[in-house]
Amino acid sequence: MVMPDAERLCLALAEHLRTGLHPDTALVGIHTGGVWVAERLHAALGLKTPLGTLDVAFYRDDFSRSGLHAQLKPSDIPFDVEDRPIVIVDDVLYTGRTIRAAMNEIFDYGRPARIDLAVLIDRGGRELPVCPRWVAHALTLDPDKNLQLERSDAGVLSLRLIDA
Questions:
Q1: What's the alpha-carbon Rg for the chain, to the nearest Å?
Q2: CA angle 104, 108, 109 (to 5 degrees)
Q3: Are the C-beta atoms of 145 and 163 separated by less than 8 Å?
Q4: Cα–Cα distance between 26 and 106 in angstroms, integer?
Q5: pTM of the entire predicted model
Q6: How many whole angstroms from its chain centre is CA 70?
Q7: Distance between CA 56 and CA 153 in Å, rounded?
Q8: What gap in Å lies between CA 151 and CA 65, rounded to an integer?
Q9: CA-wise closest residue to 16 among 138, 104, 147
Q10: Separation CA 32–CA 151 (nearest Å)
Q11: Which structural domains are found in the chain, ordered by start?
Q12: Is pLDDT at 133 greater than 70 in this prediction?
């Protein structure tokens, strides 16, 4: 399977979002790949509201099984969530559990006007009723495969297919 170009997908996703955003919209990227995508979207769209980031590890419903990850990063929401439209940004959408965890964490900061979802890749295989509003690329992967977004030392994003 040939992997789509992650940098081009980021540009395409920015164009999809451009027409559907409110002036007060805030982007919130999910660590780690979602933050990388959100950084590119935030710059491409010229948003005034600072970029937010989430590490949803403690909010995952499988936390007790997977335990604490060594790469845990702090969440940072540098804006008032109350009554603000929020777009959660992630790299690869699969089961929907990460997005559910992100929504739970966002509500700890306040009650947004709405929450939408933008993803670079929708790989199918949902376990929860989560549907992105914006998708750069959709594909179907076998459950024994994963897509991983990587960032080079130069900051270039690429997608890699790996065994689960």
A1: 15
A2: 125
A3: yes
A4: 12
A5: 0.93
A6: 20
A7: 25
A8: 28
A9: 138
A10: 10
A11: 6-65+76-163 (3.40.50.2020)
A12: yes
Give pairs for 147-156: CB < 8 Å, separation 24+.
Answer: 147/3, 147/91, 147/92, 147/121, 147/123, 148/33, 148/92, 149/6, 149/33, 149/36, 149/37, 149/91, 149/92, 149/120, 151/36, 156/7
The DSSP symbol for 163 reads E
Handedness of CA 154, 155, 158, 160 (dihedral sign): positive
Question: Whole-angstrom Cα distance, residue 92 to residue 106?
Answer: 19
pLDDT of residue 58: 80
Confidence of residue 69 (pLDDT cuts 50, 70, 90): low
pLDDT band at 65 (very low <50, low <70, confident <90, very high): low
pLDDT digits (tens, 9 = 90+) for 5-24: 999 999 999 999 999 899 99
